[in-house]
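Project outcomes to date are best conveyed with an example. Our students and postdoctoral researchers have been running inverse folding experiments weekly, and each run begins with a structure described purely in tokens. The record below, which covers 261 residues, was selected by the lab manager from last quarter's runs and is presented without edits.
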């Protein structure tokens, strides 16, 4: 586990930033492949990758600052832009990234739901790769396992500062693996005769379900209300609304697939 890969003079090249950038590039490349395979809008994907990627970084940072770590950042306002230190909430990244994508599709007269269905697998793939950045940076960590198994993080990480030399659940590793499973499920589902919007909605529901249960072993922040964490409350809202939307799309079925060769 290496937070710093190498230095250029006194400037550190952090594993977190490099892997995060890689996740955006590979997600954009996968979205381009899927859109070109579908035969629609692939020329727009590179631009959207830039806009949505930047919006996602801003959203992920602000979500973490205001929902998870405001007690700290309220006293250290100048550190809010320091994304290289870690502290990114994927739910905020998805929200602002999707909003940027929505604005782009409307400005270019692209069918928003149909486009979202095409690129949904690429989004979850990017999230899976991004969790590797959390592992290398020592954030998004789990609670102590209470046994002789788990990850012991280096002394320079936030995980070590919180729990010391205790083995922790590899929450970020589990999430990355579940994201890969969701990626495969979405690829399979999009080959069926689904209604427009259902692939993206399925992505939102499956990820939110996975995140809800993983939060029980996360150890990087506490509970909010009703014994649940903020990410769990958000996930519950998305799951309920998502299931209702999925059913509604099915009743008002306008075929979105398959268009694959």
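After processing, the design step wrote out the following sequence:
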């Amino acid at each position: 586990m290496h937070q710093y890969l190498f230095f250029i003079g006194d400037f550190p090249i952090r594993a977190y930033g490099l892997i995060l950038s890689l996740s955006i590039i590979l997600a954009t490349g996968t979205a381009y492949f899927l859109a070109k395979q579908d035969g629609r809008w692939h020329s727009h994907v590179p631009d959207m990758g830039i806009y949505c990627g930047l919006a996602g970084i801003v959203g992920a940072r602000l979500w973490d600052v205001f929902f998870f770590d405001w007690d700290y950042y309220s006293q250290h306002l100048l550190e809010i832009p320091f994304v290289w230190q870690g502290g990114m909430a994927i739910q905020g990244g998805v929200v602002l990234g999707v909003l940027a994508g929505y604005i782009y599709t409307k400005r270019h007269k692209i069918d928003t739901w149909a486009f979202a269905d095409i690129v949904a697998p690429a989004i979850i793939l990017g999230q899976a790769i991004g969790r590797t950045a959390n592992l290398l940076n020592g954030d998004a960590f789990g609670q102590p396992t209470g046994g002789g198994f788990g990850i012991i993080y280096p002394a320079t990480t936030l995980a070590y500062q919180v729990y010391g030399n205790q083995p922790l659940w590899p929450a970020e590793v589990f999430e990355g693996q579940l994201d890969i499973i969701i990626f495969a499920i979405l690829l399979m589902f999009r080959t069926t005769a689904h209604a427009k919007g259902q692939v993206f909605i399925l992505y939102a529901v499956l990820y939110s379900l996975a995140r809800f249960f993983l939060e029980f072993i996360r150890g990087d922040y506490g509970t909010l209300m009703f014994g649940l964490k903020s990410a769990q409350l958000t996930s519950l809202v998305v799951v309920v609304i998502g299931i209702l939307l999925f059913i509604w799309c099915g009743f008002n079925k306008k075929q979105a697939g398959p268009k694959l060769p």
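Residues 222 and 229 are 7 Å apart (CA to CA). The longest helix spans residues 112-137. The training component of this project remains on track.
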